[in-house]
Every structure is written in structure tokens, then in C-alpha cells.
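Hi support team,

I submitted a single chain yesterday and got back a structure, but I'm not sure I'm reading the C-alpha cell output correctly. Could someone confirm the output below corresponds to the sequence I sent? I've pasted both exactly as they appear in my results page.

Thanks,
R.
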Amino acid sequence: MTTAIAQTDILGRVARLRALLAERQLHAVLISQPESRYYLSGYRGHDLPPRDSAGYLLITADRLLLLTDMRTTQQAEQEATSYEVIQYPAGQRAMETVAELAAKLGVKRLAFEAIHLPYQVFTDLRAALDPSIELVPQTDLVDTLRIIKDPSELRALQAAIDVLDDAFAHLARFIEPGVTERRLAWELEAYLRTHGSEGVSFAPITVGGPQTAIPHAVPADRPLQEGEPIIMDIGALVDHYCSDMTRTVCIGPIPERLQEIRDIVLEAQLLAERQIRPGMTGREADAIARDFIASRGYGEAFGHGLGHGIGLEVHEPPWVSRAKGDMVLRPGMVFSVEPGIYLPGWGGVRIEDLVLLTEDGCRVLCRSPKHLSLDDVRQALTSADRAPAPAAP
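Hi R., thanks for writing in. Yes, this is the structure output for that exact sequence:
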């Protein structure tokens, strides 16, 4: 069952947002991104992107407005109890309503989420607004709040991780030669939807053999075989929060080259998880694993970033990468650590954990075993099932 966000949490988030608005000399902000809308209101309205929004938030220094149409007005009133819900008049476009309210409230500088608002909606808003009202693009206004996870978010994230760990254990026991990639993906989704999750947080990557050389490969009707790498990059959704984990396994005898590459990837990951600290940039954290892989002769085979933030989105700031890793990492951030080596025509290996950055470094949130041999994975899972529960702190 989905848990509602406490109104005290919502009002605390709004208060911090209003402080940022004042600091940036902004009179109001239009929230269009569904994840930010939920974060700031608790309203779960479902968009049909990119053309059909379930609603917008208009937040000023003293007003909280949620704009939507008759299809979702009742839902908005039930879920966003701190907001005044305004239904668009019949026949009127959403941005016309926004423009009328902005003028009525005396807004002179209206911020919008530049990372999300579609250009057509932006042009509709600009055309409807009084020319004296300035539209101010913001790329990090809400991200500044969302990037540090509060206790309720950490609970939801851990719940999404825990059910994913259970799902991985189920898949490890389900895999056998001849099971297709697509069947494995469906088995994951069926398990999650019947074990307390809202479903997958992204389309599962459950592939084997040469397809594992494609980091975001799409499962097909190809049967899994012995002696090849099998990548399971999977995620669950609980209370709107996402999890994400990757494990690489092999059925039967393990080829020498596969063992070698897996050992390099695992050592790179463990090294990064030990050494990443607050105060590093995402680029510096990425270099820990990247430099190690390069020292083993596979630098060109690690083409993506070491990690990405996660929360209401599967990929969100901070970025732990060469390309976008300018941000300084701080305690309270949750991100992936997922080095990989990919060799076209042969296959690839990726291992991914989610970690919480603390004052002392990374705390790994996943508990799934990282063995390459599927038999060893199963043995580890059996041992974990038999182990006594840890004592309460």
C-alpha cells in the first residue's frame, strides 16, 4: 500500500523552497515535473507525457495552488491537503489559468523548471502572460532540495531496495539454461507486483551473451545459455521511490576471460565504495574506479559514468561521472556505484549498488550477493536465509 507523505514534511520542503525563491528574488514558481510536484504536495496525479499533464503547482511566498482539470480534481483535494486546488475553467488551457493567477497575485518574476517544461507549453505560457511578467528558467531550484534525502525518503528508498533484493533472490533461483531474456524480465515484474512493490522503476535489462556489451540492451526472446555473462539491471518502485541494482552471473563453468573481467569490475567497485568521501566532486569519485579499470587495460571499455543519483527518478542529481560530475558530494545523497567493462561481440560485466553517503563515506544499501557463479549466488542466498536475524540496535 502506498504511504502518503506527512504534511509536516511537505510544509518543511515548501518552507525551504520559499527561502530559495526569496534568495533568488523570485516571486513564484511553476512546478511542472511530476516528481517535483509529488515531492512538494503529495499529489500522485499521473501525467501522460509529453502532451497531457495531471496538473501544475503555483507556489508563492504565501499561497500554495494546485491547478488541474475535472478528471483529477477530487484526487488532488484528497492528497494535496495543504494546497488550494483550482480546476481549469471549461474550455480554458492550463497556461491561461496560470497567467490569470500570476497577474492576480502580483507576480513579476515567475520561475519555471527549465529541465522539464515542454517548449510548446512554455510558448503558450509566454503568450498568455502579461508582458510585464518575467519568466525565469531554473534548472536546480527543486533539485537543490531533493538531492539530500530526508528520513522519510530514506525509508522509502530502503523499502524499494529491500524488495528488489528479494526479487533478485527469486530470479537467481528461477534462472536456468533456456529461459529467455524476456521471460526473465516478466518474472521480475510479476514478483514485484505481488510482493509489495508498485512495479518496476524502469524497463528491466535482463540479457545474456553478446547483448551484455550494450549497457541498456533490450531483452529479447533469446534463451540464456551456460558459460556466458548474464546481466540483470533491475529496479523496483515503492511509495514513488526507485531502486536500481545490477548483478552479473554465469550459469555453469565460468570462462577464464569472463572471470578476469568480472574480478576487475568488482575490485573497481569495491575500491570506489571504500574511497568515496564527502567533499569530492562526482568527477573525482568517478576517477577512482575509472583509473583502476584503465590500469588493467580496459579503460576504453568503460564508457559510461560511475553513478547517478536516485530517488523519485531513477536518474537524477548528483552525477558521478566525467561529463557531469562538477557537483561536490555531500552526506545525505544517495547514488549508484556501477562500473562496467563492455566488449562488443563478446559481452560485458556490470555490478551496481546503491549507496548512502555519510560523513564517514559510502554505506551500501543493497545486500544481494555479487558472486559470478550462479551456484555460488544460490549458496550465499541459502546461507543468508539460515543466518540469525541481526540484533536490534
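A quick pointer for reading it: The CA atoms of residues 31 and 137 lie 11 Å apart. Let us know if anything else looks off.

Best,
Support desk
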